[in-house]
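Bench notes, afternoon.
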Amino acid sequence: IKVIYKKLNVLIDNKHLFAQRQVDLMFSSLNFLKTFVQLLGITLVIGGVLIAILTTRSITKPIQVLKKMLLSMGLGILPEERIKATNDEIGEMGNALNGLIQSMHHTTDFAKETGAGNFDARYTPLSQHDTLGHALLKMRDDLAENERLLEQKVIERTEEVVRQKSEIESKNEELEILYKQVTDSIHYAKRIQDAILPNNSIIKQLMPDSFVLFKPKDIVSGDFYWIEKKADLVYFAAVDCTGHGVPGAFMSLVGYNILKDILNNTQIVKPGEILDELREGVVNTLRADDSGKQAKDGMDMTLCAINYKTLELQYAAAFNPLYIVRNNELLTHPANKFPIGSFVGEKQNFDNRIVQLEKGDQIFICSDGYADQFGGPNGKKFMVGNFRKLLVQIAGMSSEAQKEYLDETLLKWQGGQEQVDDVLVIGLKV
């Protein structure tokens, strides 16, 4: 029994040892399975991450690029970047968008070339249904036709301009010849007008202490001065005819000849009667036209007759007064308020006024040209009031100094302004 019991124990121990080994082997298998499961889980996580990354790179990123490109195109900006070609739907969309951008670049280049006048630039519509492409081609053809028509019109207008230029040059040559003829005639008329004006020797002989400031606006003048002597009387006058230039010069010739005729061929000696006779002569010379209307031409003037022995001065005036400066005081002697020429209403005779002069008196007669000259800082007239003050200011100067001062003052006042009228001032000191 002991032997059996002993063998039985050995057998039990062997079974226990075998069982322990099987348990150990089972736990070892379980540990391997656990490790395998853990590794599998890690692998699945890593694989999921990789799949997500690949998905983002292959889908999300191209979509973002597509969005950015479309937004730029919505603002009218053609993007420079392109989408890489792939074999999926996104790749197809990218290829379509790339083609659209390329086409728009081509369209832009075509539009620039067409706008620059290159109507031979090539352009192919995307398809027969490409509305924009066909519209661009039609626009190019229309512009080319308009360009051709414009070029034809330019040629025609150029030919017309050349023809007109030739005609204008021919007319200019004729006008230059005519202008020279007219100017030469006016200069000759000036020689005639200068011939009737008293020269300096006659002025100094008849009026020793005197000056004449005479500044025509044009080549010839509508103002003129007249100096003559008859018996003991020295006549001097400042005459302002209607207008200036050639019309005024013709009037001055009329006035001069009538005055000379009155003094030499009549017994009239009083200035008032001379002006009455002068007016009759002007009206008769410038007689009514065929319609019966009197010509409105005439003249304003101041005519003086001085007797140096008695210092008696007679004068008559049409509009322009007589000024005498005595003891630094200006004495204004009035004029009749009607001109020498045609008249309206009842006929009136000119007053013949007498002034007893004193030694040292300064006499001034003038036309209205000096006072009417525009200039100064505000471009206004010199005005009669300033002219009268100026006469008092220069009365104490010598005759030559008076003339020079009056001339310099007028030029300074005039500045860059155009002379507006003939200027005539006569000064005489007794």
